[in-house]
Amino acid sequence: MVIVGAGECGARAAFALREQGYQGSVTLIGEELHLPYERPPLSKEAMASEADPAAKIVTDLRKLADARIILMSGARVVRLDRQAHDVHLDNGASIPYAKLLLATGASPRRLPGLPESSRCVTLRTFDDALAIRRHLAAGVRVAIVGGGFIGLELAASARRRGCPVTLIEAQPRILMRGVPAEIAAVVHAEHERQGVCIVCGQGIASIAEAGETIEIALAGGERIAADLCIIGIGAVPNTGLAEEAGLAIDNGIAVDARLRSSDPDIFAAGDCCSFPLAVYGGRRVRLEAWRNAQEQGGLAARNMLGQDEPHATVPWFWSDQYQLGLQIAGLSDEGRDTVRREVGPDAFILFHLAGDGRLVAASGIGTGTAVARDIRIAEMLIARRASPSREALAAPETRLKALLAA
Amino acid sequence: MAEWIKACEADDVDEEDVIRFDHGSRTFAIYRSPDDEYFATDGLCTHEKVHLANGLVMDDIIECPKHNGRFNYKTGAAKGAPVCVNLKTYPVKLEAGAVMIQID
Fold this sequence. Notes:
The structure holds 2 protein chains of 2 kinds. Chain A is an alpha/beta fold.
């Protein structure tokens, strides 16, 4: 068994193979030199902490050795040979596989025409995070292009380090993708309260380096000078290997519900693949989320061993900014209509209902983990395709857990 | 030295639920199981030090509200990724309608 990509997803898959009792060889190949680590803290704790951060590793050499997992770090796969059933590395070596898992992740989307500069950066890896945080000192002007989760979390972290922050979003509001306007408004207001200058509805005309300054010209003519410019405009799936090998691609490596690609001996999981989401009638989606990476790593491993288990879970995301915690279960664009539920004084949940009344998603925001429990229950209701009454969802005195028993 | 302290009234915790209990600088989670027994563990998840009391109790499992790490709150056993370190548990007894826990 060979796994390409040693992030959260690939590492989880490697261990899941052993948990299933597989005794043969397991090789995990990663481009980075680090042990597999968690990426979510990179935009949060790793940026905001005063002390130099350590990567939050998901396994160590001892556990890898105990599980007889061969980790090849700093190794890049340059080609898949489907006929010969082997993968070729940049050092000339090749490794045979019976089943192959592509957990190659995604890469930051690039803005065309950017200057080659250490002051104009993206965030994906731990090394990226270290490079960014080296700049983050009080007074250092930070410009962030992109009002998605990464951009906003970095904005919050940079404010914590005392940096003046300007965030530029081309869309009419922040968090256009996947987050309802009512919740995005809470996030927007909190960033402004914390002193972030948010500019929405403005494209970038140009970004140029002038000495130690990055000059950003907006489409509307406004100019912003920054000491550090972070581009956070989404990610593109790493499909190069799969494409060159002739595998089907559809917004990522196209896999079926069992995470099998168009080649029955090759699976894909995590950020790099698109798959049919059963809870929405097989709608094809690609998710960039930590829990999805973990779950799909495990699921792919079981199916590589012939389990024939379809994907069945509900997407789940979270973001932390300042004291705010946002959690979303399901995809809110499936909903036609929302019901709002107050959860304590400064937290609320929007339940998204389909035209037939079925609960299809829930989005919540509040201090810390205030909405977590109800979002988790909503996730279970969504998985059951439940149609709870609007009154029960809206009434704070109704225990949501009681709806699970119904 | 081990001592028994009062954590809460028995009625403060719903069945199949959890509440937070702070004592000095320490924080605990007090559980009431579906079969109406009481349990106590450390209050913070072993993964990222999040208060477990906002988490969901299902049967004998507490799920961390942040990243869904799962523990058996009766034994403290971690139930798999992302949590790998067990949760410390504490002896519990009911006394005159109060939940008492024994801390060290």
